[in-house]
Design brief:
It is a single chain. The protein is an all-alpha fold. The protein has five helices and no strands. It has a domain of 71 residues. 58% of the residues lie in helices and 0% in strands. It is elongated. It starts with 6 loop residues before the first helix and ends in a 13-residue tail after the last helix. The mean pLDDT is 84.
C-alpha cells in the first residue's frame, strides 16, 4: 500500500523543481503558497463553493474564505469598485437602461 507523501517530501520536491526551473527559492513559497494562489484565482473561473473547494483541496468553504483568500486581492477590489459605481448610477438614474440592476452571472 502506498503511503501519502510527507510535508517535507513535498517541500523537497518543490525546491528541486525550483532549481530545475532556475527560479530562486523564496521563503514561504511552496505548497501552501500555490494553494493560496489557486484560492485567489479560482473564483475567476467558478462561483460554486463546491467547485472552488474541489479546485483548492478544501472540504470547508470557511477555511478557504477566511484563511487562504487574500483580503487585498486586486481583482476583487476592482470588481467591488465597479459594483459600487453601478449601484451609484442606478440610485441616481434608475430609469436609464445602462443603470439597470445587473443579473447574476
Amino acid at each position: 500500500m502506498r503511503q501519502p507523501l510527507s510535508y517535507m517530501a513535498i517541500r523537497s520536491m518543490f525546491v528541486a523543481v525550483e532549481r530545475i526551473a532556475g527560479v530562486e527559492h523564496q521563503q514561504g513559497r511552496s505548497f501552501y503558497g500555490l494553494r493560496r494562489q489557486a484560492t485567489d484565482l479560482a473564483p475567476e473561473f467558478a462561483q460554486d463553493a463546491r467547485v472552488l473547494n474541489r479546485l483548492t483541496g478544501h472540504t470547508d468553504s470557511t477555511t478557504r474564505e477566511r484563511v487562504y483568500q487574500d483580503p487585498q486581492n486586486e481583482r476583487v477590489r476592482a470588481r467591488a469598485a465597479e459594483a459600487r459605481r453601478s449601484m451609484r448610477r442606478f440610485l441616481r438614474e434608475p430609469e436609464r437602461p445602462d443603470a439597470a440592476v445587473p443579473t447574476a452571472a
